[in-house]
Design brief:
By secondary structure, the chain is of the alpha/beta class. It is 25% helix and 14% strand. The chain has eleven helices and twelve strands. The strands form two sheets. Strands 3, 4, 5, 6, 7, 8, 9, 10, 11 and 12 form a ten-stranded mixed β-sheet that branches. The protein has a two-stranded antiparallel ribbon with strand order 1-2. Helix 8 packs parallel to helix 9.
């Protein structure tokens, strides 16, 4: 029976990956699909990249993995904002290979692999930034003992804010959410937003819905120019900075390794309980305390989807609006983009993925593509060899995606490997 259930769960994951591939990539003849080997002569389809899953030497050949979710707006913008899910990058500014603008080598670990501009172009719509007053300016920084130093400072906040401004200017139908872990003085953030020309886009806190009410429709937010949601970890910044206190509007899971316990979806200390209905937005964190590309490679697909189902149960039967990960492009298949598709399918139409939603149909009406790529077979879409993954990472091999039917969902079957309790905030 366990073997049958495992096969069924694996089959669903393969089907989800294949459907999303058919729906979003539509590659030209000769292009490789998700999970297939790739090279300069056999490139991946759109919305994917060609790379090894793990960055470690000898971890296997390069394969195609997804970098981009299906556009959550593909079936329209007439739903409340809290009926959409958005791929979110944790510490969006902490990018591999980035030299500090201070001139010092950076010793704090990175969390992402490409620029904020590239993240946005790949469909990321939630950004997590840590702000500090440093060198008479606002910086994006990891802290060491609660302070920003030359060797932990990644870049000036103004650089990333200008990237956000350029994207919003060039994409008039897009909405971005910024979560600020704020260690700056009152007024510092508003000054930086104004200098970047972003103030005109900020959703006014006074117009945000209270007591768990629905948000305006995405269409209305765009029409009113409220295309940048800025949430801060500091209370009382509505007056000084014109931004909202995040936990008045969002329930959020524990972050880091403490938030990855098998079958658990506890809230972080500052947030209300996950089942609180006084907040209408749900944020699920899924990353380790010590950032690991190898861990993301193994866990950013089916274990992430399993965690979303666990958090659905814990969050008063609500799917997440924001899915926050490290190294969002790393996975053994569909990755965080596929998880975002699953959440959007459940939020928008009640289907296993947004690829199954049927336009202009009642909630719960699902359809499947008339045809799938021939490479949707298990052999083409299977994950990297589990033993190779185990040898390149302390994390266990991937667990299998649960079915999304409430009557047949399986919890995440293995917990992430324990990690050091030390942390960069």
């Amino acid at each position: 029976m366990m073997a049958v259930d495992a096969a069924r769960r694996r089959g669903l994951l393969l089907l989800l990956v294949a459907t999303a591939t058919a729906f979003v990539a539509r590659p030209a003849t000769g292009s490789a699909l998700v999970g297939q080997g790739c090279s300069a002569s056999s490139p991946c389809g759109s919305g994917m990249r060609c790379a090894t899953c793990s960055p470690l030497p000898g971890s296997g050949p390069a394969v195609c993995s997804r970098t981009t979710p299906i556009d959550p707006k593909i079936h329209g913008t007439g739903l409340p904002f809290n009926r959409y899910s958005w791929l979110t990058t944790h510490n969006s500014f902490a990018i591999t290979g980035t030299p500090s603008a201070t001139g010092a080598p950076i010793v704090s670990p990175p969390n992402q692999e490409d620029s904020v501009t590239n993240q946005l172009n790949n469909g990321v719509r939630g950004l997590m930034l840590d702000t500090y007053d440093f060198k008479n300016d606002l910086w994006l920084c990891h802290s060491f003992a609660g302070k920003c130093y030359d060797f932990t400072a990644y870049q000036l906040a103004s650089k990333v804010l200008k990237e956000i401004k350029a994207f919003l200017d060039s994409n008039p139908s897009e909405v971005i959410t910024v979560f600020v872990e704020d260690y700056s003085a009152p007024g510092s953030l508003s000054k930086a937003l104004a200098a970047a020309g972003l103030t005109k886009y900020v959703f006014p806190p006074a117009k945000m819905p209270g007591n768990g009410a629905d948000w305006p429709t995405l269409k209305d937010m765009v029409a009113q120019g409220h295309r940048l949601l800025v949430f801060t970890s500091k209370q009382g910044r509505e007056g000084s900075d014109g931004v909202a206190h995040v936990w008045n509007y969002v329930v959020e899971t524990k972050y880091g390794s403490d938030g990855l316990a098998m079958g658990s979806c506890a809230s972080r200390a500052e947030s209300r309980a996950m089942d609180s209905k006084a907040q209408s937005l749900v944020l699920v964190n899924f990353f380790t305390t010590n950032p690991s590309q190898s861990w993301a490679c193994v866990n950013n697909s089916s274990p992430l989807i399993a965690q979303l189902r666990t958090c659905y149960d814990a969050s008063a039967k609500r799917w997440p609006n924001f899915i926050a990960v490290d190294f969002y492009m790393r996975s053994s298949g569909g990755g965080a983009p596929l998880a975002t598709d699953v959440a959007n399918g459940r939020l928008q139409c009640g289907c296993d993925t947004i690829a199954y939603c049927k336009e202009n149909a009642p909630f719960g009406t699902c359809t499947m593509p008339s045809s799938l790529p021939s490479s949707a077979s298990a052999s083409a879409l299977s994950s990297p060899n589990p033993s190779a993954l185990r040898s390149s990472s302390s994390a266990p091999p991937p667990t299998l995606a649960p079915t999304m039917s409430p009557s047949s969902v399986s919890s995440q079957s293995s917990s992430p490997a324990p990690l050091s309790s030390s942390s960069w905030s």
